[in-house]
Amino acid sequence: MNTSTITKLSQSDNPARTPITLTIAGSDSGGGAGIQADIKAISATGGYACSVITALTAQNTLGVSGIFPVSPAFVEQQLDAVFSDLDIRAVKIGMLSDAGIIRAVANKLRQYQPEFIVLDPVMVATSGDLLLEEDAISTLKNELIPLATLITPNLPEAVTLTRSTGQHINTSALQHTDKELLIEQLKTISSNAVLLKGGHWEQDSFSTDYLITTSDTVTISAKRIATRNTHGTGCTLSAAIASYLAQGCPLSEAVHKGKEYLTQALCHADQLSIGQGHGPVHHFYALHPSRNK
Fold first, then answer.
1. CATH of region 17-287, choose from 3.40.1190.20, 3.40.140.10, 1.20.120.80, 3.40.50.2300
2. Residue 176: predicted pLDDT
3. CB of 145 within 8 A of CB of 189?
4. Is 274 helix (H, G, I), strand (E, B) or coil?
């Protein structure tokens, strides 16, 4: 090739600001949740993903067999590396395994002050067991939640976060009559916004989430999808919302678009055959060759 024919880009030809979203979470070796799901969701929704890993997990579609936390010092080193170089607009936070890591993340977020922070408070296993010690939950509430633009608890996580703020709610017996009480309690733990995810109200034919602010509560519903491939749904939703915020969407629009993206990823999840247990949602359904079949 004649090099004289190559057109060089001038400064004026530089692309527009790339919407970068940072995910701070644990690694899922099975690829369906955690950092891996976040990177897929951010990429599929039009953003650029970077990452800080807080823990390594030995995990597949059948469950988690081991967790190896990263030291708070190395979490801080990763955060310094990405924030000192990349123009990060939004941050999604997932699994934080102990109080030390929570403090390290909170301190660095106060230092670098990203525009948007979406916190998915991963605290309760599917079995109902707590994944965080009591001191870590307290640190999360005191150090990290006040920094968040949006927190996205599911039903057991919402109950765990609010249980010291008033009347105790039994998760296993929670009825729709308790919903208003839970929403009012959630308003007291965050000065910004909360997205209460309704997936655990499994008796409903629709999956209804509640976007809660101090002044209003908006319901966001989608038809419940019958699939066992639901691994990583919470990670995927919060990462997609953060990605849309980084791209300039207002909060309500980002939440609605994130919900629609997750719904479509669930609708197409059975196009995938991954593992022997609960497989992942289909993050890249729009690129799947059989999407219209």
1. 3.40.1190.20
2. 58
3. yes
4. coil
User: What is residue 8's predicted lDDT score, i.e. its pLDDT?
Assistant: 46
Look up 232 and say whether it is catalytic: yes
pTM listed for this prediction: 0.89
Q: Which two tokens stand for residue 140?
A: 């999360």
CA–CA separation, 225 vs 228, rounded Å? Answer: 9
pLDDT digits (tens, 9 = 90+) for 22-63: 999 999 999 999 999 999 999 999 999 999 999 999 999 998
Terminal CA-to-CA distance of the chain, rounded, Å? 43
Q: What per-residue confidence (pLDDT) applies to 135?
A: 86
Helix (H, G, I), strand (E, B) or coil at 253: helix
18 catalytic residue (yes or no): no
Task: Name every residue whose Cβ is closer than 8 Å to that of residue 242 and which is 6 or more positions away in sequence.
Answer: 21, 23, 42, 90, 91, 92, 116, 118, 254
**From 197, 259, 263, 279, the catalytic residue:** 197
267 is catalytic: no
Catalytic residue flag (residue 230): yes
Per-residue pLDDT, 205: 78
